[in-house]
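Hey L., structure's done. Input below.
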Amino acid sequence: METKPMILLTTSLLAYIFASFQFLYFPEIARAIQKEVSLDTRSGISTYQDAESARPEICWLMSYPNSGTSFTMKLVGRLTNATVASNYGQECIDFDKNGQEQRENMYENPSHERKPIPLFNESPNGPFLLNPERTLPRSYILTKTHCGGRCNECGSKGFLETPNSFLEACATGSLGTDPKTGTKKRISYDPSFVKKAIHIARDPFDNIVSNFHLEYHEKKKDSNRHWLQTYSNDRNGFRKWCMNLNAKYPFDFVEYNATFSPSIMQTIQEVPCYKLFFQIIQWHNLASHVTKELHLPSLLLHYEDYEDDFNKTIEKISTFIDISQGKGVAYFTPGKRYKHYFRANEIKKLKGFVVKLSTEKTWKILQRYF
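Output:
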């Protein structure tokens, strides 16, 4: 009759010891018990009850278009099964009740319940969750931005940037295109949210040809027969496209206040797409300036690193943004090199142009390609 209290006492003591053992030897269990994170998938991160703070910080993925942005975003997403983010709400994915992917123009259906989901409630203008059905990363969320100073069909005023305008563009995104005017709705957020940056560089020769390939696929998708008949998707089509851009949108050296010798100014205009080379140089100059001004720890990543040492590159990214590699698999397709689209004398002329325009840091980034 007197054994019951002893049994109860022994049971309680064992339970206490087991619970203590869990917290001592399985700290992830302890953290899971202590942590309660609420994510409202319709309005971003809403509440946190966590002594360690589960709110991820923003790490910009800064890249000139077609430098490896999409692959890097997919890589991190697949390795971690966590969401990444983007400045560009229109490209962010949401799902209907059946789990089907939806991509809608915010202008065409502004009252629809599916809207880009902001990462933070206090920042409704972005960044936005690219895969809101996935979990949040624990430390840093990779966030796509192309910043500014980039366009194919425009003159100098369309791409010349100051340090301030470039910084503003890095924290600017869009929410669809107005079908009446063809213009995008621009939205911006406070760049002080950003705590780190990955700066991607790619061989500018490959980069510019890839821009042409993207342009070709966009025109094909839009069934632009005249454009497709004018430019073939090969070296000849690329060179013709470039020369037409050179003629249609000549670079205003006076407006840029560039102190080039007359010989450089004359010869550089004979190089295919020389204006786009200027844009890439300006982009890297200003990207480095912005990360320095914001005191952002930054990681320089060359697109070719994926081909040269894939595993080491993954390790560098993982360490920088503090991610654990899961079971996801990602594959890199090598061989996207297009320097042969340019002649040897054109490459030589471009080298002098790049050296003249580049900051010391930008030349260190691009020197390997010349």
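The chain has 14 helices and twelve strands. Residues 305 and 311 are 10 Å apart (CA to CA).

-- N.
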